[in-house]
Amino acid sequence: MPDSPLSASPYEVLGVPADADAAQLRLAYRRALRHAHPDTGGDAATFHAVQAAWELVGTPEARAAFDRGVRTTAPSDAPHDPFAPAAPRPRRDSRPLARSYGHPGGFSREQYLALIREWAGRGVTLDDPYDPALVRSAPRDIRHVLADALAEEETARALSTLGIAYTVWHDLATDAGGPGLPPKLDHLVLGPTGLIAIQSEDWGGPVALKRGELVGDALAGERPIRALAGRAKAVTRPAKVKPTALLVVVPDEHAAVPLEVGGTNRGAAVALARRSRLASAIRDGIPGSPQLGGVDSMEVRARLQATVRFA
């Protein structure tokens, strides 16, 4: 099961309350397995999700570990918060990284911490605001903010591998957030393949491109491409430059294909990408997005450096 604040818990996958006894849990597992099996009209993804849920809570030891927020695969069953800020990963090579500015996920994490403490109540001490049990019990809108932070951090890790020819800005301040939307642009990438505005997202469900906009039940009325275009314009207009592409990045399981391209918005190519496809999509160039020569890229970088602000 993916480590996402919006992922269904194993109890939700099996269709039982978290306090179900062992007999109820086993009965629910057998029933869910039978209904999800491809041979009985189910689908492979649901079948595998049921099996993964059972691995997490199917034995007393595994269930106790899951309820405590412990990964049984961690060394010595050490507590592991999948939602806490991750330590820097060791590098496997010495190739130069992309130049990077800003703090990816920082604004969203600050927002999450404020919301979770407000939701817990005045006077309540939260020893660990990223405790998995606490996160799972929070309202969806709070979990979504944390999911955004995690998505932005994962995107930043992928973008850092682009190489020295690319410059990346994270968490750029903008006044074009709109009602209920964060006042920032998640990422802006500049390189020989263009100037690409990126939104990192995890809506907890699949999305797809249709007529230049994202659609999907999990969006709940949002219009992400329109919002992304507004943020990108607000950030790039002071530098008198324009983005060449608008790209939304989602977890792999939430996009049907690795890279989906769907028309243009204000002259910028519109695309949806799986997270694992992000770096290669930018290196290859988003189809329909104009590329920049070396001189043009240096001029755009200088203009942006003089105007960008961070959230």
Automatic annotation (TrEMBL):
It comes from the Bacteria. Residues 74-86 have a biased composition (Low complexity). Residues 71-103 are annotated as: Disordered. CDD domains: DnaJ. Residues 9-70 form the J domain. SUPFAM superfamilies: Chaperone J-domain. Gene3D superfamilies: DnaJ domain (1.10.287.110). This is DnaJ domain-containing protein.
